[in-house]
Prior knowledge:
By secondary structure, this protein is α/β, with parallel strands linked by helices. The chain has a single domain, classed as Rossmann fold, CATH 3.40.50. It contains seven helices and eleven strands. Strand 1 (42-48), helix 3 and strand 2 (78-82) form a beta-alpha-beta unit. The longest helix has 23 residues, at 9-31. The radius of gyration is 24 Å and the shape is globular. The N and C termini lie far apart (72 Å). 40% of the residues are buried.
Amino acid sequence: MPAPSGTSKATAMQQLSHTARVFLGVTLGLLLSPHLIAADKAKVVFIAGKPSHGRMHHEHRAGNILLADALNKSGLNVEAVHVPHPGYPKDTAILERAATVVIFCTGHRGHVLNAHLDEFDRLMKSGTGVVMIHWATEAEKGKPGEKFLEWMGGFCDLNWSVNPHWKPNFTNLPVHPITNGVKEFSVNDEWYYHMRFVKDLKGVTPILSDLPPPETLRRPDGDRSGNPTVRKAVASGERQHVAWAYQRPSGGRGFGFTGAHNHVSWQDDNFRKVVLNAILWTANMDVPKNGCPSERPNDKQIKQNLDR
């Protein structure tokens, strides 16, 4: 290339060399940008509700932190982030490119999604997954319940579902990515059951099921304590599903998990692995053969990040 008029050949070469170095530096900076690296990972957004119960019960924030930390330390191609405040995100930019959203909050009238059903529905229709934990599975009748059916195939319904504390025995686990590495187990918790599911369980795969003992229905009938339909189902020997996977016909996946009233339940390796695997599955990730790896939180760690 001829040197520009009035410029020496040496000066022109110096200018070209400087330009090349700048271009190379910018290119490498972009390639190594953490934002671009993160973009290749499956993004999991955690939404926690406000405190609702006493210490070590319904620990929405602490439970979410425990699960997110496990994912980020798993070595898998996943990036877990938290909404930085209780409730639905004030800045919805955090939901952009989310592969799945995990919600652990108060249910029914206090659900974080009630005022955002249409907005969240658009996210679900784009193929984003959803995981709802414990009380978050409970929706109001009408539009909220209808949307929950569309998003995750079932929900906890007043005067239909019940919320006893009991210790199911989870045996005969189905062959499904969510059960990868999960062994038969039993955890005493507040396991809601007799969910309201889509017709004929179409698209639903029960993950954790057992037949509740009669004492789970010892309370009088009430919104969450009992009703003729659930009593008949248990008396006839119908196993009840307390965790389930749902493949939406239009694309996208959902998972409902009714345990986790007791924060200490996260110390059970199989209890924790089921939920971690489900998060990966709803994010359309391949679940490792032995399940999502995670360290068991010790007695000190389980008491970190509590609401009270």
